[in-house]
Amino acid sequence: MLKKSIDIGMIGLGKMGGNMAQNLLSSGFPVCGFDVSDAAISKFRESGGTTRDSPAAVAADVDIMITSLPKASAVKEVYRGGDGIFQSGDPGLIVLEMSTISPDMATELAEEAATHDIDVLGAPVSGGPEESRDGTLTIMVGGRQEVFDDERTQTVLEHLGEDLYYTGDIDSGHMIKLINNVMTMGNLLLAMEAVSLGAARDIDGEVMLKVLGKSGGASNQFHKRMPRVLNRNFEAGFTIDLGKKDVGLALDTARSMDQSMITTSVVFNLFTQASRDGYGDEDISAIVKLLEENRGTTVDAENEVDEAYDGY
């Protein structure tokens, strides 16, 4: 299918949605967008995108919508608000819901969309702004199989992600996304607690990076964020506040299932404390600061390290 024959709408032009939109534009797709941020709108227009003044106006002009939003209240407004998608989307519109929301909310949106003859796929992603820009995201998609298999859906998804997985029912992708984010925050927290103990014993951070990077405790999060910690670079890729929000969503989901999450509750409490201490807008790697304060030490290295480190 010719790219120019698929009109794409993008609601949410932040670090994730904005980079996905730029990727699609550079790949030859026409993309129409909306965001509440004037700065995000300006950057999108400079990349060649067109804009409308509401989600409803975007939905009226496109074949496939993508929503990538930071919180549930924004998702509700974009779909159900007076200027929302449900007000003007044509029958047969496909919506890829890529925000991190609860599985129950994904189900509710899809059921309501069906009353408007609109198909919603729950399509959350794993990866950050860099992967969004490069089209190398991992995308987990739940919803109607025939909508996932639609040529338009596949064409768009294949330009956004490197690894695409059909996961089953509408809520399944969002459930796996929450599981992934719990593992991410928990893994990172434990790694930072461990290396802060090493720092308290005056072990050089680069030495720990090299040795642990080749040992059984190594992980994606350790490889990705330990170099940033050593360089004291906490510019946000994914913030403490967003991590706290996602872990909270997982806990809420577990409670709705009458399931306990003992360790995850500890993770949530510590991320909450880090947010209260003023680190909420910093990268999740800044969780180390909370642990450093408790120990009276700093995790750093004698020399600057390569942040592109991927295991020695």
Give the key terms:
single chain; 312 residues; alpha/beta; Rossmann fold; N-(1-d-carboxylethyl)-l-norvaline Dehydrogenase, domain 2; 2 domains; three-stranded mixed beta sheet; 14 helices; 9 strands; 51% helix
How does this structure look, described?
With about 300 residues, the chain is an alpha/beta fold. The protein folds into two domains: about 5-170, NAD(P)-binding Rossmann-like Domain (Rossmann fold); about 175-295, N-(1-d-carboxylethyl)-l-norvaline Dehydrogenase, domain 2. It is about 50% helix and about 10% strand. The protein is built from 14 helices and nine strands. The protein has helices at about 15-25, 40-45, 55-60, 70-80, 105-115, 130-135, 145-150, 150-160, 170-200, 205-210, 220-230, 240-255, 260-280, 285-295, and strands spanning about 10, 30-35, 50, 65, 95, 120, 125, 135-140, 160-170. Strands 3-2-1-4-5-6 form a six-stranded parallel beta sheet. α5 (about 105-115) links the parallel β5 and β6. α9 packs across α12 (about 240-255). The N and C termini lie far apart (about 45 Å). The model has no long low-confidence stretch (mean pLDDT about 95).
